[in-house]
C-alpha cells in the first residue's frame, strides 16, 4: 500500500497534538531512511542505531517547530546529521585531550584521580536515587530501561527477549527515557 504525502501530513499534525499512534507511524515509516543514512556515515550498527533514536527523540520533542513547507524526512536526516557531527566532535576532542607529549617523569607526577571511597559512596547514592526514579515508571518501561542500560542489551536482543517488534522496543525505550527525564526534572 502506497502512503501518500497527504497521509504523512495528517500523521505529522496528529503527532503535533501528541497522538502516540502518529509518533509510532512516523518512526516506522522513516526509521530505515534515517538509520540507513547514519549507517553509511558512521559504519557502526549500534552507533547508527543510537544516533537514529536520539534524532527521533529530539524531533518528536520539537515536532511543533516542524515547518510543513519542508520535507519531514529531510528534517529528520538533518537532525540526525547534527547529532552525529556533535558526537564525532566530542569523541575527537576527547581523543585529542587524551594524547600527551609528557615525559615519563612528568607522567609519574600526575595526580591519581581514581575515585576515593567518598566518591564511590556518592556514585552509589546517585544510582540508588536513579533506581527510585525508575521504580516510579510503569513496569513495562522499567523492564525496557533495565534491559538496555543495566543489562546492556542491544535493541535486537531486547526485541527477542520481550518477543516484540524492534520498532515497538525503540518507541517504548524512547518514551521511557522521556518519562524518566520528566520525573527527575520534577524532583529537582
Automatic annotation (TrEMBL):
Domain RNA polymerase sigma factor 70 region 4 type positions: 129-180
Keywords from the named record: Sigma factor, Transcription, Transcription regulation
GO MF entry, a single one: sigma factor activity
Protein's GO biological process: DNA-templated transcription initiation
InterPro entries, per the entry: RNA_pol_sigma-70-like (IPR039425), RNA_pol_sigma-70_dom (IPR014284), RNA_pol_sigma70_r2 (IPR007627), RNA_pol_sigma70_r4_t2 (IPR013249), RNA_pol_sigma_r2 (IPR013325), RNA_pol_sigma_r3/r4-like (IPR013324), WH-like_DNA-bd_sf (IPR036388)
Ranges of residues in domain RNA polymerase sigma-70 region: 29-92
Protein family: Belongs to the sigma-70 factor family. ECF subfamily.
Name of protein: RNA polymerase subunit sigma-70
